[in-house]
Amino acid sequence: MHYQDALAEEIRDSAARLLAEDVGPGDITAELIAEKHWARARVITREDTVLCGVAWVDELFRRLDPRVILHWQAADGDRLSADQVFLELEGPARSLLTGERAALNLLQTLSGTATRTRHYVDLLAGTGVRMLDTRKTLPGLRLAQKYAVSCGGGHNHRIGLYDAFLIKENHIASCGSIAAAVREARDIARDLPVEVEVESFEELDQALEAGADVIMLDNFSLDDLREAVRRTAGRATLEASGNVDDSTLKAIAATGVDCISSGALTKDVKAIDLSMRFLGQDD
């Protein structure tokens, strides 16, 4: 399935799951409000953020109640300032309240991913080094978080186990050698990229000799990263991984690697503080 088609399906499925887990057989508290009451509400962010999740919220309210109208004042990928209103809604008060938490849960998580990514991308500005995510995503949110990374200016590593080879220590041990693993990968699917994770210069040389497209330098020191760049001399794309944080990112980029990957973009998510407030109700 094409990525965009898969993402569209994920949006539909996610919206359905969010409503099912929160609403269940019905929102009993919303029944306190008369069914005929119509309301308007605003959603604001309490902190600076990069917005992500518009399509999910649209789909959620479409499923919940098509009478709800959403007026977005920002798009995915936009930077928002603290206390900025970025969405206004109008519709039956019951429906706004029923969908509130499911919508905000999704927005705060994906915006958190996009915001963390943008922070790292900003630190890399001017270096030409690409920031990559990993498969260390929150369960059930793989495509959503991958999309959020792109909204933050980052780049997606492989989406799953099916769209690229990543040969690690246990694969090498099972195949017998790096050369054997790369050779087998080429036989399985010549059109897919082959990446090899290495932990030493000896393994780096073997991966280069085997013709790997990408080589992941796992937990190499800064000096060793520079030496790896020198040895590789452009024969493969070099990806640095491990010990990546605010204090090390620029120094890693300065070694000359092509890209840096970090699971922190998706697994260590700090949810953004968002709030929905009613403006009033009309009969």
UniProtKB/TrEMBL annotation:
Record EC number: 2.4.2.19
Pathway entry: Cofactor biosynthesis; NAD(+) biosynthesis; nicotinate D-ribonucleotide from quinolinate: step 1/1
Residues binding substrate, per UniProt: 101, 134-136, 158, 168, 197, 218, 241-243, 262-264
Enzyme class: transferase
CDD domains: QPRTase
An example Gene Ontology biological process: NAD+ biosynthetic process
Catalytic activity of the protein: nicotinate beta-D-ribonucleotide + CO2 + diphosphate = quinolinate + 5-phospho-alpha-D-ribose 1-diphosphate + 2 H(+)
Ranges for domain Quinolinate phosphoribosyl transferase N-terminal: 27-111
GO molecular function, one term: nicotinate-nucleotide diphosphorylase (carboxylating) activity
InterPro entries for the chain: Aldolase_TIM, NadC, NadC/ModD, Nicotinate_pribotase-like_C, Quinolinate_PRibosylTase_N_sf, Quinolinate_PRibosylTrfase_C, Quinolinate_PRibosylTrfase_N
Alphabetical keyword list: Glycosyltransferase, Pyridine nucleotide biosynthesis, Transferase
Domain Quinolinate phosphoribosyl transferase C-terminal as annotated: residue spans: 114-277
Source organism, top-level taxon: Bacteria
GO cellular component: cytoplasm
PANTHER family named among the record's database cross-references: NICOTINATE-NUCLEOTIDE PYROPHOSPHORYLASE [CARBOXYLATING]
Function per UniProt: Involved in the catabolism of quinolinic acid (QA).
Family affiliation: Belongs to the NadC/ModD family.
Summary of subunit composition and partner proteins: Hexamer formed by 3 homodimers.
Record's protein name: Probable nicotinate-nucleotide pyrophosphorylase [carboxylating]
Organism: Halomonas caseinilytica
